Amino acid sequence: MKILFVAGGVPSRIGQCHVLDLLIALSKFHQVSVVCCDLGTSAEADAKDGLRKIADLRCVPCPRRSLLSKGLRSLWSRAPVAVEGYRSAAMRDAVCEATRDAKYDVIIFEQLVTAQYGRLTNDVPKLLFPVDAVSRLKWQRCRASLNPVRKLALWVDYLMCKRYETRVYAEFDGVMLVSDADANYVLENRQLNKSSVFLLPLAVDADYFVPRERNTECGLSLVFAGNMFNYINEDAILWFFREVWGGLKKQLPKLKLYVAGNDPSDRVRALAAKDSNVIVTGFLEDIRPPIWNATVFVSPLRMGTGVKNRILQAMAMGKAIIASPLTIEGIAVTDGVQVLLAESTGEWLKRCLSLLQNGGERERLGRQARKYVEENHSLRAKTSRFLDIVQQIKSSRHSVPMDAA
After folding, report:
1. Cα separation, 337 vs 333, whole angstroms
2. Calpha distance 244→231 (Å, rounded)
3. Average pLDDT, stretch 298-314?
């Protein structure tokens, strides 16, 4: 089978890892091609050589536009600002060229921002893989904002995104999402009917993200990992530092906090300047070492949709985890069995202090977390589910309605 992925970034272990794992698995038995926006990050540059070994790769530089420019374009086109950031004649030409040169069995458009190129593919079966229900995330962000002017702007962006989703979803044979919560949101808002919504759970490369004994010489430490240019992750670590970190330091003065992830903002970098026990790593070619060496993995997300890759990776690495309820959305774990949940400042303080001082409990949680990932988020299961969705799409295209016979 010949499969084309149109992606919003170069698939790597840092970004679009949900596409990378599929490409690796599918390339063993199928012919895969990728047309993607190149955001110019170092992680993407490092990933290209590896991608070319498994797929026909075409990278198109992502246009650099100011927020004002994207905003004006958005008002004209009535498409979300983020979509205008990815609108590119070069990308359009690359998609057209790829589909002209080869006949694909199915084309996957990854992220909502690439949906604008879906209509260029003529009669080829096509799936949209926005990963998350984007407008749901925008509503969460609007609800959390306290600034009235900013809240209004976010509300307008939410409405625009929701209308755009409803319009473009209809142009595809199906839409794949990674969590039940997002699928239910789409159905409840009547953006699609049930037959066009498919669940494709995220997977973890459990041979790469493996448990390893931590370096105890590092002392007690917490780690938070994620793409730090993402405002969701920035919000989470800023909240944790403001509401929880001070209380922990009073009880455990030598405790360290590692913030691991690429492109941290000035506000995140400032945390290290305020407290020498906070280490902001910036970009890492390998995210595993700071997670291995941390005593406890924390994920205090206050907004977000879909399933969180980093939490699954930490679970696969056998880490003891404390997370907000929203962090584990879409993951069928139980509080106290595979992870510990915390929401309020008091809960975070209590559970962090307890787990940091209880090695036996950390080992138990880590074993259960690893077991859960092995049983429920294997790459084999994800690949099988993806191929099943493709087959359903192809079969529905060839089915003949009874009243048309």
Report:
1. 7
2. 19
3. 82
